[in-house]
Design brief:
Blueprint (H helix, E strand, L loop, with lengths): L2 E2 H8 L2 E3 L5 E2 L1 E2 L9 E4 L16 E5 L11 E5 L2 H16 L4 E2 L4 E2 L4 E2 L4 E2 L4 E2 L4 E2 L4 E2 L4 E2 L4 E2 L4 E2 L4 E2 L4 E2 L4 E2 L4 E4 L4 E3 L5 E3 L5 E4 L4 E2 L4 E3 L5 E4 L4 E2 L4 E2 L4 E2 L4 E2 L4 E2 L4 E2 L4 E2 L4 E2 L4 E2 L4 E2 L4 E2 L8 E4 L2 E3 H11 L2 H18 L1
Parallel strand pairs: 4-5, 5-6, 6-7, 8-11, 9-12, 10-13, 11-14, 12-15, 13-16, 14-17, 15-18, 16-19, 17-20, 18-21, 19-24, 20-25, 21-26, 24-27, 25-28, 26-29, 27-30, 28-31, 29-32, 30-33, 31-34, 32-35, 33-36, 34-37, 35-38, 37-39
Antiparallel strand pairs: 1-3, 2-7, 22-23, 39-40
Length: 342
């Protein structure tokens, strides 16, 4: 699909400087621009590339004024980075705007779906499923019985949505994600083994949630595992049964959260963090990568380490951690001097 500079300026409410009929059908970095590509300039350190880029159209801030001749057509906007993000979103929505049911696929007669629905080949949609308007189910997706998915949500190829799961509006679930598998519930038995504890709850995902590839969210033993509105989960994250994650919290890859832990709102959790079960993380908490959390955390705390310490304490301690060999040598030297004088 091709767009002219004038059309793009209309979408972004920007001004064209150059050829309004310049056409683009691809996107690129400014340093890798080519004929027919749209790019942007937001970071001043990339300014030299605007004089050499081969991109047909470049989005720039309204304050930008070239020092010498440029060949690319400019679209001037209030915020070049935000505007390019808007174009990416628009481009993505056009690319993903598929409609209809591909074959072979299976859709239960008892399921219901809204307008502009798409189901890719080899997808399976079980009994009593309710899908909103503009829902996109890509190939090889499994949607179990009694699942609800809200308007404008996208389920990418290979994701598995177990029965009873509820997914809100404008959610994105990436390939390989598994939502609603059994929680890790076992009890020791008299024979010395473990007996399975039935997991009869579900998973609730509210609106505007993004779930990365190969992330797993377990169903509750009883009640619900809940992912609140606006949460963003990276790839390869494990969310245990009965966990609750507060709205607008973001979590990086390979983090694991054990059962019944509660994470507050607006938290930022780094990669490879481990959070023990049955603890509470407050609101606006910042947890650095590879930290191990085994205690309750108060609102606004910044912590790091395993077991985690307050970030300021960790940084002070680290000065000593890396000097331990020298410190030990000094102590040994002092002991020798003391013992030699006694």
């Amino acid at each position: 699909m091709k767009f002219t500079a004038q059309q793009i300026a209309g979408i972004l409410e920007g001004d064209v400087v150059g050829n309004p009929d310049a056409e683009v059908s691809n996107l690129s970095k400014i340093e890798e621009g080519f004929d027919g590509a749209l790019t942007f300039l937001a970071n001043p350190k990339y300014t030299p590339y605007i004089y050499t880029t081969k991109a047909s159209i470049t989005i720039v801030n309204k304050t930008f004024e070239p020092d010498s001749e440029i060949k690319t057509t400019l679209i001037k906007v209030d915020d070049a980075y935000l505007s390019f993000s808007k174009i990416l979103e628009y481009y993505n929505s056009v690319k993903l705007n598929k409609v209809g049911v591909e074959q072979p696929s299976f859709i239960s007669e008892s399921s219901k779906f809204g307008d502009n629905f798409y189901a890719g080949a080899f997808s399976y949609i079980g009994d009593n499923v309710i899908l909103g308007d503009n829902v996109k189910i890509f190939p090889n997706v499994y949607v179990g019985d009694n699942v609800k998915i809200g308007d404008n949500s996208i389920i990418f190829s290979g994701a598995k949505i177990y029965s009873e799961t509820s997914i809100g509006k404008n959610c994105v679930i990436h390939s390989g994600a598994i939502i609603g598998a059994d929680g890790f519930g076992f009890a020791p038995n008299e024979e010395g083994g473990y007996s399975k504890i039935p997991q009869i709850g579900n998973v609730i995902i509210e609106d505007f949630v993004d779930i990365g590839a190969v992330t797993t969210i377990d169903r509750a033993t009883l009640g619900s595992t809940i992912i609140r509105a606006g949460v963003k989960l990276d790839n390869q994250i494990q969310i245990g049964h009965n966990v609750e994650i507060g709205k607008n919290t973001v979590i990086a890859a390979q983090t694991g959260i054990a059962g019944s832990a509660k994470v507050g709102e607006n938290c930022q959790i780094g990669g490879q963090v481990g959070i023990a079960g049955h603890i509470t993380i407050g609101n606006n908490v910042r947890i650095q990568a590879q930290s191990g959390i085994a205690r309750n955390v108060k609102d606004h705390e910044m912590i790091q380490g395993s077991p985690a310490l307050a970030l300021s304490d960790y940084n002070k301690s680290y000065v000593h951690f890396k000097n331990l060999p020298k410190i030990v040598k000094n102590i040994n030297d002092l002991e020798k001097k003391v013992n030699g004088n006694s």
